[in-house]
Amino acid sequence: MTIRQLHPNEVVPYDLLLLADPNKEIVDSYIKQGSFYVHEQKGQHIGCYVMIQTRPETIEIVNVAVKEALHGNGYGKALVQHAIETAKQAGYKTVEIGTSNSGIHQIALYQRCGFRLEWIDRGFFLRHYEEAIWENGIQAVDMVRMAIHF
């Protein structure tokens, strides 16, 4: 099992990215400017994450995804922890992440990885997505913003 940066000539694993963010235009906008990492197992991409610098000394994890059949096996946590360590080694002082108010499993995971609640971007998913997004029987309306400060 390996987590490594996606090489520029490799095919982007949209099947994974679109699990975490169903808007391909938004995904395309941040993969062009971000650092893209893939989690491989037996030569297959089973997960990925993308980070972009948002401010001096601040980087944001903008997408974290694991194949649905592998949820609950610790791969998401491994990806988030890898992202945190990568950011720390690169000299960032803050790592941010956001998820929907309906992403209750993601909110719990991020807190287990050390993130703390920072603020809520009210109406984010209503402003940025044409179609309603539902998770856990809850509509994604607000973006829950979290951060780790070193």
Could you outline the blueprint of secondary structure elements for this entry?
Blueprint: E1 2-5, H1 14-20, H2 24-33, E2 35-41, E3 44-55, E4 58-66, H3 75-89, E5 94-100, H4 104-112, E6 116-121, H5 124-128, E7 134-135, E8 138-139, E9 143-149
Parallel strand pairs: 4-5
Antiparallel strand pairs: 1-2, 2-3, 3-4, 5-9, 6-9, 7-8
Your description of this structure?
This protein is of the alpha+beta class. Helices cover 31% and strands 37% of the residues. The protein has 5 helices and 9 strands, in the order βααβββαβαβαβββ. The chain has a 7-stranded mixed beta sheet, with helices on both faces. Helix 3 links the parallel strand 4 (58-66) and strand 5. The longest helix has 15 residues, at 75-89. It is globular, with a radius of gyration of 15 Å. It starts with a strand and ends with a strand. This is Acetyltransferase. InterPro entries: Acyl_CoA_acyltransferase, GNAT_dom, NAT_camello-type. Residues 1-136 form the N-acetyltransferase domain.
Structural class based on helices, strands and sheet pairing:
alpha+beta
Strand order of the largest sheet: 1-2-3-4-5-9-6
Anisotropy-based shape: globular
Share in helix = 25-40%
Low-confidence stretches: none
Strand content: 35-45%
Number of strands: 9
Total helical segments: 5
How far apart the termini lie comes to 28 Å
| Rg on CA atoms, Å | 15 Å
Name the helix and strand elements from N-terminus to C-terminus, one letter apiece.
EHHEEEHEHEHEEE
InterPro entries: Acyl_CoA_acyltransferase, GNAT_dom, NAT_camello-type
Protein name: Acetyltransferase
Keywords: Transferase
Pfam families: Acetyltransf_1
